[in-house]
């Protein structure tokens, strides 16, 4: 073993430079891929946030509509409307007819 430094041959020097160049290109490619994946992940997070906000708005609208439907289908309210607007009254026994009475009427 001598103390002289190792001298690379021109072929070794070229292959080392080529290897270094390929590593740099690979590193840049991986960095760009990581950037695009990170950007797409952020876009997906933003989309999820937007959809969650939209779901909350729709759930609120559904609850309001359910409350309105409950008020509108209240039996006492419907009874009052039918009495006031349509002049309808509950069916009583004196307003009903039997089958034989219906067959007798012309």
TrEMBL record:
Coiled coil: 41-68
Domain of life: Bacteria
UniProt KW keywords: Coiled coil, Membrane, Transmembrane, Transmembrane helix
TM segment ranges: 20-37
Name recorded for this polypeptide: Cell division protein FtsL
The species this protein was found in: Algimonas arctica
């Amino acid at each position: 073993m001598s103390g002289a430094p190792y001298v690379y041959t021109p072929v070794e020097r070229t292959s080392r430079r080529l290897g270094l160049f390929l590593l740099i290109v690979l590193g840049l490619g991986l960095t760009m891929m990581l950037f695009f994946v990170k950007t797409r992940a952020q876009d997906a997070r933003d989309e999820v946030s937007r959809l969650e906000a939209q779901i909350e708005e729709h759930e609120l609208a559904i609850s309001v509509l359910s409350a309105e439907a409950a008020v509108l289908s209240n039996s006492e309210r419907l009874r009052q409307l039918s009495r006031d607007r349509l002049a309808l009254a509950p069916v009583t026994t004196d307003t009903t007819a039997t089958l034989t009475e219906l067959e007798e009427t012309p």
